[in-house]
Amino acid sequence: MTPTYWFLLIGCLMLARGLAATTISRLPVTSAIVYLAFGLMLGPVVLGVFRFAAVEQSHVLEILTEIAVLISLFSAGVKMPVPITFKRWGPSFRLAWVSMSITVALVAAFGHYVLGLPIGAGILLGAILAPTDPVLATDVQVRHAGDADALRFTLTSEAGMNDGSAFPFVLLGLGLLGAGELGEFAWRWVLVDVIWATLGAVAIGMLAGHGLGRLGWAMRNQDPRHDVLDDLVGLGLISVVYGVTVLAHAWGFLAVFFAGVALRQTELLLTGAHKNRAGLLVPDDPKADPANDEVPDTPVPMTVSAESLVFKEHLERLSELTLVLLLGGMLTLQDWNWRTCGTALFLFVVARPVSVMLGLAGTNTSLRLRLIIGWFGVRGIGSVYYLMYAINNGLPGALTHDLTQITTVVVALSILVHGISVKPLMDKYWRRK
Question: What is the CATH number of the domain that holds 302?
Answer without folding.
Answer: 1.20.1530.20
